Automatic annotation (TrEMBL), chain A:
<protein>
    <recommendedName>
        <fullName>Porin</fullName>
    </recommendedName>
</protein>
Automatic annotation (TrEMBL), chain B:
<dbReference type="InterPro" id="IPR008972">
    <property type="entry name" value="Cupredoxin"/>
</dbReference>
<protein>
    <recommendedName>
        <fullName>Methylamine utilization protein</fullName>
    </recommendedName>
</protein>
Length: 422, 233
């Protein structure tokens, strides 16, 4: 058992003991049920190539050309019992002619009590969940209120950074200290994410609103190193993002500071603590570590500023421990969004890269790119939004030459969406 | 009118009239105790009207704290994911109705001060009644929507009000007494968020109270995300 394993195990034990004590002292009342959802139907046109969803290197979820799709049918089923206990099960469905599917994306039980006399609140979640990173995906079924396609950071989370874990947050609410400042510390321990990093290496950053379903695997673009005589010959054709191979526990910590309704800032570190010596059924274990920072701030004139930056490394080795894929990566975005009555305009710029540090032939993972998103949202009725969005990604990716595409590529996408929330 | 009646009565010295005089004197005493109105003007440090602050008067004579009049019904609403009004003041022993006007569930709580409670208020639920038996400041929140913030001040006196847009309050029926006049606001930067002065009331002139400290900014009861379909991520 490593030091981190012991630490995480202790965290889990402590949390379970706390939750257990609370269970004993609470009164179990009537269970409340609540269903919410989102139906997102889009017409779009992409000037791109085959989507990463169909084993291409296109960075959008749409293939080149026009598309009509049910881009998200999200359903969120909540139950609440007693004052502090609740559960949330989120299912998503997609009908886009590229990769249709329906399945679970989140399923968790939550304990969130009211604050203590000193303003300390405990918030514990257990289940299939996202690490607490995204500042964009705050709406029903992890949708973003701001844009149809998420930033590259949160698109990566949607694809392969999810797990089964325990998330414990301790918050200190400022109003109990006559202060305008709230602080929170979240510690997360998790498993079932041992391949996290594979897709970032093999198709790079994407811009999408597609969340990988629990039962899904993700097709990998054919790369020469995966040929029978290549160094990645053992890799399966699809990556399984929610699998446990090494029986080790990963960890993620986030500290957050919120200044009343002015804004908040967070900083976090993620380490899946994986043992890269293991490969099972064509799935290698990837050791992925990254740090991230983010801020959401209300600027003058009611403009919201949202920004996140992430930087890290992902490593995959052969069973002797020799690096096969060793990539540094970074991505960051700045978004400005302004809502006035039923209109909202959002503007997002991004910069991202993957730096290939290994010497594996026929598997060049280098990438460098920038992106711009312009979105306009019109609220027809309280639950019904019409959204127009333009995305452009300008990127350099040498691996495109493996599938006879230009290394330098500008991809563009226009979308009109009807989103109905309930 | 009473004074004139007395002058006429004094000129006729009969036993009946004397008895009548005694009765009238007693009545007069009682009436003068309750008819006088008293206005207060509350100014902030800059000399501008202090709007929406609580003013309550505590008479030094304990008997004056009790009035037979029926207490005003107080309601705290949850509307557009905000507490409305932001500040409510009630007399000790009074019931307050919590009314959810939103189409979602709120989890209202008070975890500090003289009255601690926690209850969920579904949108279809008419209201929840809570009795406040102890005087003090009740700071309320919603455990689902952290930005929601409301304050309830429970006072041990029937003489309380909240200043209007001109910073004024009027107390219509004050007994004659020495009063501690307390000005309170949850963001007033003074000990216990209050300023206390003593006056002999009622007085014919409006009393002007200038606050010795500034106010903290009132928290906006608004989510940073400004979106109706947030899910607590």
């Amino acid at each position: 058992m490593t030091v981190i394993d012991r630490f995480v195990s202790r965290c889990i034990c402590l949390s379970l003991v706390t939750v257990h004590l609370s269970v004993q002292s609470m009164e179990w009342g009537e269970i409340e049920h609540h269903v919410s959802g989102v139906v997102d139907t889009r017409i779009g046109y992409a000037d791109s190539s085959d989507s990463y969803l169909s084993a291409g290197l296109g960075k959008f979820s749409a293939n080149n050309g026009s598309q009509f799709a049910l881009s998200q049918l999200g359903l969120s089923y909540h139950t609440q019992w007693g004052d502090a206990w609740s559960s949330r099960i989120v299912a998503n469905g997609y009908l886009d002619g590229i990769n249709n599917g329906i399945g679970l994306t989140e399923a968790l039980v939550r304990y969130r009590d009211i604050p203590s006399e000193s303003g300390i609140r405990l918030d514990v979640e257990f289940g299939l969940m996202y690490p607490k990173i995204s500042l964009e995906n705050v709406a029903t079924a992890w949708a973003s209120p701001y844009s149809l396609s998420y930033s590259t950071i949160n698109s990566w989370l949607a694809e392969e950074v999810r797990h089964i874990g325990l998330s414990t947050t301790i918050e200190s609410l400022g109003k109990y200290r006559q202060s305008a400042h709230d602080f929170s510390l979240t510690a997360e321990a998790f498993m079932f994410n041992d391949t996290t990093g594979a897709m970032l290496a093999w198709h790079g950053w994407t811009q999408t609103s597609r969340q990988t379903l629990l039962q899904e695997t993700i097709p990998i673009t054919a790369i020469p190193a995966m040929q029978p005589d290549g160094m990645l010959a053992e890799q399966a054709a699809n990556s399984d993002p929610f699998t446990e191979l090494d029986d080790r526990i990963g960890a993620h910590v986030v500290a957050k500071w919120a200044w009343r309704s002015n804004g908040n800032v967070q900083v976090g570190y993620y380490d899946n603590n994986a043992n890269t010596l293991i490969v099972k059924q064509g799935q290698y274990v990837w050791l992925t570590k990254f740090g991230h920072v983010g801020a959401k701030w209300l600027l003058p004139y009611g403009v919201s500023f949202i920004s996140q930056y992430m930087q890290g490394n992902t490593l995959m080795t052969n069973t002797d421990g020799l690096p096969v894929v060793d990539n540094d990566f970074h991505s960051g975005y700045i978004m400005l969004s302004k809502r006035f009555t039923q209109h909202r305009v959002s503007l997002r710029v991004e910069d991202f890269s993957v730096t290939d540090k290994d010497v594996t032939p026929d598997d060049n993972n280098n990438e460098d790119g920038q992106s711009l998103t312009v979105a306009y949202q019109y609220q027809l009725d309280k639950p019904w939004f019409i959204q127009l969005e333009y995305n452009v990604i300008d990127s350099t990716r040498p691996a495109r030459r493996y599938i006879n595409q230009p290394i330098e590529l500008v991809e563009q996408q226009w979308q009109v969406s009807s989103r109905y929330f309930f | 009118m009473i004074g004139l009646s007395l002058s006429r009565d004094k000129s006729k010295l009969s036993l009946t009239l004397l008895l009548n005089l005694t009765t009238l004197l007693l009545l007069t005493q009682q009436v003068t105790q309750t008819v006088s109105a008293q206005e207060f003007l509350i100014l902030n440090q800059q000399g501008q009207a202090a709007v929406n602050v609580v003013v309550y008067l505590q008479p030094s004579n304990a008997e004056n704290r009790i009035v037979a009049a029926e207490s005003v019904k107080a309601e705290v609403h949850q509307k557009d994911k905000q507490f409305s009004p932001y500040i409510t003041v009630v007399q000790k022993g009074q019931e307050v109705a919590f009314v959810n006007e939103d189409d979602i569930t709120h989890h209202i709580y008070s975890a500090l001060g003289p009255k601690r409670f926690s209850f969920k208020l579904r949108h279809e639920q008419a209201k929840q009644l809570i009795m406040f038996e102890t005087a003090g400041h009740v700071s309320m929140g919603c455990n689902i929507h952290d930005w929601m913030s409301g304050h309830l001040l429970v006072v041990d006196t029937p003489f309380y009000a909240i200043t209007d847009n001109q910073g004024k309050v009027i107390f219509n029926a004050l007994p004659e007494d020495d009063f501690s006049v307390v000005v309170w606001h949850p963001q007033l930067k003074l000990k216990d968020n209050q300023q206390l002065q003593t006056f002999h009331l009622p007085s014919e002139q409006s009393k002007v109270i200038t606050l010795d400290a500034e106010f903290d900014s009132i928290p906006k009861q608004q989510s940073l995300d400004e979106f109706e379909f947030l899910e607590g991520y």
